[in-house]
Amino acid sequence: MHNAPYTESRLSIAAALALSAFVFVAGCKSTAPATNSATTNATAPGSLANDDAALAARVKQAIVADPALRSLPMSVATYRGVVQLSGYVDSEEQIQKALAVTHGVPGMQSVSNDLHLRPH
Fold this sequence. Notes:
By secondary structure, the chain is α+β, with helices and mostly antiparallel strands. Helix content is 54%, strand content 18%.
């Protein structure tokens, strides 16, 4: 019976690992799909990424469609509907125009302005 405490401690460790694995796997279990597509998009991380990518594409398309903005080196990034514009422009008017064009794109929640005037 010298091995009884050793066996008990090994069983305790194995039980603790099994319980934590069960809790982890149970937490990953999917739930029933929502019937409302807005709810599905709001809760599914993959949907958010797809929505953000589509939003970024629409913003880029709107910027390229504007003759005053199309040649400017601007970057567009989105996260959960927030659009971030970054890069350099020649005038304050171009910044305001880029913000106005972005605000006109459906699906955006807000705009983060990281546009800067080019040094002369």
